[in-house]
Amino acid sequence: MRMRSKLTLILLIAGLFSAGTVGAIANWLVMRDFQQSVMDRAYDNFQEDVRRYLAIYGDWNNAAQQEAFHDFVRRHRAYPPPPDSGREPGRPAIDRRQQAPFRFIVLDPEGRVLKGLEEYPQGSMADPALLSRTRPVIHNGSVAVRIAPVGEPPPPPSDREYVAAMRKALAVGIAVAVLFALLIGVIAGERISSSIRALTEAIRGMRKNRETALEVEVKSRDEIGEMAQAFNQMSLELSRAHRELRRSSEMVQQQAQKLRELSIRDPLTHLFNRRHFEEQAHTLYQQAVRYQQPLTVMLGDLDHFKRINDNCSHAVGDEVLRQVSRLLSEGIRKSDLLARYGGEEFVILFPNSSLEQALHCCENLRRRIESHPWGDLHPGLEVTMSMGLCGKLALGNAERMVAEADQRLYAAKHRGRNRVVSRSGEAA
Predict the structure, then answer these.
(1) pLDDT tens string 224-276
(2) Range 24-27 contact pairs with CB under 8 angstroms and sequence separation of 24 or more
(3) What residues are paired with 135 via a beta bridge?
(4) 398 near 285, Cβ under 8 Å?
(5) Which residues contact 264 (CB under 8 A, 6 or more apart)?
(6) Strands of 385-390's sheet, edge to edge?
(7) Most buried by CB count within 10 Å: which residue of 49, 160, 163, 279?
(8) Which of 56, 53, 142, 33 is nearest to 104 (CA)?
């Protein structure tokens, strides 16, 4: 059920309950007043009948011997009360021909029943509860008898019509109140639900784009208005926080990438370092064995590099290492793995390359290094490289292949440097 329907239903129920409660209380008050009015009129009628009865016959016992009270009342009902009836000043005269039916008992001043009913037979003593509800009838300046009602007399026809009209008016008022509550519920529900819908849509929008600050219109100064203001402030702060978090995350990722590069790169030549080469060489060796593909390793060393440092300075030596690194990188494939193995040593792993293919590539690399214009870097400077190759997967792992290539590099050095040795006892 939507919020608008819930609010309308709640207001409608509240209106029905309020209107029903007011109607019930009003009906009870009206009926109570009417019952009291009927009772007062009945009391007045009966008192006047008793006073007339006593005025004519003297006392109740003598009157009862002369004429029964009900016969007397029937005979004198249409006559007005005597001037000395003792009616309270200001109380209007009563039309006794239109009085409502009633039931009264008559007691003497001591509480003995003179005129009784089934519940209180003649001659019996009245209980204290009944005595507390009696009214005295004054005759000749003293209390002659007491009278008390039994039960509640019904209202006369004129009063019943008035009560019916009053109840009808209450019913119409309740119906109008219900329609008004329904109208107010629909209007208030739509107003409140529209504000809540705007907040809900804004929250959904924040989930899609958390870096954009969303704002909802503040239409009131009540709790919903305060909620809208709080949302606008929260949206602004969250958007800032998300932007800062994204920038921080990007910075952390960049720093992590830099740290990773530093951990696997040689700081001087920016080639991969020995540790990273050994990790990757192990993986490439396993792949070559699994898929039965050729794999060749080259281990190279710059010739007489100590002389370059001693005669030309270490700065020149560092620049030689950087330029040799660039020449090697430009002369191999992207799939080949090049690393600075240590000092002036370089290692290259040629995946999916036979010994002959790697030998051809390494010879080109050797010539590029030899023919490079090193004199531009330092007058009279010459740089060459000796290389050893190994393509024996049967050795069992990449480390043994590198060791075999190192032996052939030693052979190249021994045979005059600036050459490539691919097999034992051979030099290119």
Answers:
(1) 777 777 877 787 788 788 788 888 888 888 887 777 777 899 999 999 999 99
(2) 26/170, 27/166, 27/167, 27/170
(3) 147
(4) yes
(5) 272, 273, 275, 276
(6) 337-342, 345-351, 295-302, 385-390, 420-421
(7) 49
(8) 53
